[in-house]
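input
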Amino acid sequence: MTQTFYGTDLAHVHDVAFGDWAREAAPFVLARLREAGIDEGLVVDLGCGSGIWAAELLDVGYEALGVDGSAEMLVLAEGRAPEAKLVNGSLHDVELPPCAAITALGEAVNYGGPPTLELLFRRAYAALEPNGLLVFDAAAPGREPELHRRARYEGAGWTMDVEAGEDRAERTLTRRIALERDGRSSEEVHVLQLYERDEVVEWLEAAGFDVTCHLSYGAGRQLPGVHVYVATRRQR
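output
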């Protein structure tokens, strides 16, 4: 079955109601870039969404390439970060150009199985400049501590019901999203692959990175089962 990710209405709701994750992450990631001596150059933002992080990058002098599988998200990103180059496609398939850093905020890497993620790390190593950074977060088993959860979210002109269930044996998280907006109804099912922290570190080190792990983006929120990885490309 072909899955729909972030159609027009869910893209809007994600932007207006859940964009704070990228905003909260921005100071932490910018600080890591500057600590690494990366004060300019191209940053590739995988799973760029509505362009919140890309706009932050442009504002402080970086170039930005945003990649997202949702064309509707990229419409929003074009309006927010018009100077960014935007590509509609999977972060696991897109050609990664030579760059100073690569980021993936908001569980973007969880959309794909382990062999694909290992390959992404190797592709990132090949694209990054010496001492370039790969910064991302990934959900692990325990993302839903109670295994099953229902929640309702509401905003101006919309309501959204989310049923989230975690399969510990398969290490997957399924989110069933039912959305009402301006008299329209839409549904999406998102299945995320969950990764243990130690295996992610092992794959990164095997690809040629030195890695540090964090429980949050600095002063940003700490979410259950989410780890933040800062990976520096070693020179071989």
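quick obs: The chain has six helices and eleven strands.
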